[in-house]
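sry for the spam today, last one i promise. struct tokens for design, 552 residues
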């Protein structure tokens, strides 16, 4: 797994490095060299333009320029001011050194000149704005960013694509869309989430010093990015000595006359994800229509109200069914009523592994008046509990419904409030979004996100079914729940990729993700078992770049 550090913690590591004798100037030289070596690796590249900003990110760019000039590249640096006029001492020194070495320097060019220069460059190095960036890019960088993105040249971003917040992954104005980002010391959350996924391209981490790995670990990473080989221990060895029950039994509880489809999708997803026996419990009013759609999955009709939602009488029956299953998923399509709130609290009090999704999460919000973190007794149980909120459901759980999390880091903070209030390793919150975090008291794991094709109604129901199936199939320790959930997210993502190949990136519906799950799991397991084969020869489904373009 690769550590992900908040930007303020990266600065602490930088300070710690200076304390062990690696100066900021030395770090800048190594950062520039790291960026230069990525340029030099590009086959056929000859003409390079470096866009340098006014701070240390610009400093890295000047170092890279001098380094590449020394290697024989045709290098031009574009800068808003003369090297002599740079305010930062270290950046000024490296800029003057680059200029003295013979690097061409263009100061504050008009847009047309810049456009011609960038279009004629094999590689553009973006060293305008780094981790010191805040707000919206001001002139001239706003215009330079446009010019970079219009150039069609190969773009390598230094540390972070300019205009992107390395912390939040948000961009309030223009931002560079890079092919590759060389980031210093460690991954940062914004590179892996939200706009970061569009902006970074592949990501290379440059450690810059041998002490970095230790110092980064000591800086308490905010999350860990999972690599394929992290999942090896979770895979079960294939065996023929199984029957449908030993392959895991899943109960799905959900549905209402308004939403009969959601629990059906969750149940089918659980079956496609390898659970041997899936049972679906729905309100009696919709049971006949649901059963007519389900050939393999028995449907249990439970007491319901006239409006087609579960009645309170269903709670004990659900608890009885759940006792006999390896895992239960509750929530898809079931609405928030006194009946469904009763079912959720009865299941929470039970002793079997439980996945709480969709309206069952909203039931918990109702039960706790949007303060689940003030009612940890509700979650206090020994058996695994995996909650799968998207950002709005997460916000409702912790009283942020008026200001829901807008970034991966704020979603992780909200998820942490929940798991820390309980304090036990048996609770895991899967904070879903375009980037997802699987958070427990021990760790936050970031699975590699799937394609945007997953952003389709019902996709979350499918994920709930996959998580329930994996929970039912594999008897993991509580400490491994975040990794198990992350693996489910990755399989969901693989299925999204396969479905997008079949139906087009905009054509995928949740049912297509379900149908692709079995093949997705096989492909995923093969790539975990034989990562080298997946990388060479065959196209791996899990490209390692942030945007799926290359190696991290
Ligand atoms: N961590 C490490 O170990 C290492 C870090 N290193 C490198 O240092 C970088 C961080 O450097 P940094 O702190 O100097 O900040 P940086 O990103 O250059 O930006 C500051 C400049 O941008 C300006 N500016 C800000 N917002 C703006 C806006 N909206 N629009 C326009 N301008 C704006 C700001 O102006 P001000 O706000 O002060 O007016 C100031 O002039 C880091 O990303 C990495 O590349 C390596 O060298 C060594 C190892
Ligand atoms: N842009 C995206 N890229 C990758 N995955 C996404 C994206 N948007 C959503 N997802 C994933 O799709 C699923 C959507 O879940 P959810 O919002 O609960 O959908 P629904 O309620 O319609 O079932 C989550 O697993 C989420 O991580
Ligand atoms: K940059």
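last one done:
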């Amino acid at each position: 797994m690769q550590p992900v550090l908040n930007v303020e913690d990266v600065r602490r590591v930088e300070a710690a490095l200076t304390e062990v004798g690696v100066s900021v100037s030395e770090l800048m030289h190594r950062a520039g060299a790291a960026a230069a070596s990525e340029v030099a690796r590009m086959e056929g590249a000859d003409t390079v333009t470096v866009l340098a900003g006014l701070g240390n990110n610009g400093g890295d760019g000047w170092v890279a320029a001098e380094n590449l000039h020394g290697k024989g590249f045709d290098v031009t640096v574009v800068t808003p001011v003369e090297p002599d006029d740079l305010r930062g001492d270290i950046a000024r020194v490296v800029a003057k050194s680059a200029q003295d070495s013979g690097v061409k320097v263009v100061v504050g060019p008009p847009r047309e000149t810049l456009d011609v220069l960038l279009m004629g460059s094999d590689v553009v190095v973006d060293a305008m704005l780094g981790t010191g960036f805040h707000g919206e890019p001001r002139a001239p960088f706003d215009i330079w960013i446009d010019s970079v993105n219009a150039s069609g040249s190969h773009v390598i971003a230094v540390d972070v694509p300019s205009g992107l917040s390395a912390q939040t992954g948000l961009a309030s104005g223009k931002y560079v869309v890079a092919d590759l980002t060389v980031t210093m010391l460690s991954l940062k959350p914004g590179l892996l989430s939200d706009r970061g996924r569009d902006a970074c391209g592949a990501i290379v981490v440059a450690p810059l010093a041998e002490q970095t790995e230790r110092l980064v670990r000591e800086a308490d990473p905010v999350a860990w990015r999972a690599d394929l080989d992290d999942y090896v221990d979770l895979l079960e060895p294939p065996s023929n000595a199984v029957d449908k029950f030993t392959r895991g039994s899943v109960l799905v509880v959900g549905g209402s006359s308004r939403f009969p489809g959601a629990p059906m999708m969750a149940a089918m997803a659980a079956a496609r994800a390898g659970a041997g026996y899936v049972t679906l419990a729905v309100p009696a009013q919709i049971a006949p229509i649901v059963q007519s759609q389900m050939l393999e999955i028995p449907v249990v009709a439970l007491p319901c109200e006239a409006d087609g939602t579960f009645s309170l009488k269903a709670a004990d029956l659900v608890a009885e069914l759940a006792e006999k299953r390896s895992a239960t998923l509750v929530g898809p399509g079931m609405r928030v009523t006194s009946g469904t709130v009763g079912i959720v609290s009865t299941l929470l009090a039970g002793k079997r592994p439980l996945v709480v999704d969709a309206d069952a999460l909203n039931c918990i919000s109702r039960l706790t008046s949007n303060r689940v973190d003030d009612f940890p007794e509700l979650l206090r149980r020994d058996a695994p509990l995996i909650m799968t909120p998207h950002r709005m459901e997460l916000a409702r759980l912790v009283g942020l419904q008026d200001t829901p999390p807008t970034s991966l880091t704020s979603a992780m903070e909200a998820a942490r409030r929940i798991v820390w209030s309980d304090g036990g390793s048996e609770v895991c919150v899967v904070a879903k979004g375009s980037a997802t975090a699987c958070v427990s008291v021990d760790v936050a794991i970031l699975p590699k996100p799937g394609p945007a094709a997953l952003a389709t109604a019902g996709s979350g129901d499918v994920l709930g079914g996959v998580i329930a199936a994996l929970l039912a199939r594999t008897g993991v320790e509580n400490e491994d729940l975040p990794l198990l959930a992350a693996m489910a997210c990755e399989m969901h993502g693989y299925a999204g990729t396969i479905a997008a190949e079949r139906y087009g990136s905009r054509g995928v519906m949740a049912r297509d993700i379900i149908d692709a799950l079995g093949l997705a799991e096989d492909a995923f397991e093969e790539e975990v078992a034989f990562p080298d084969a997946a990388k060479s020869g065959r196209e791996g489904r899990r490209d390692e770049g942030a945007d799926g373009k290359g190696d991290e």
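The domain at 229-535 is CATH 3.40.1190.20 (UDP-N-acetylmuramoyl-L-alanine:D-glutamate ligase). ok im logging off now
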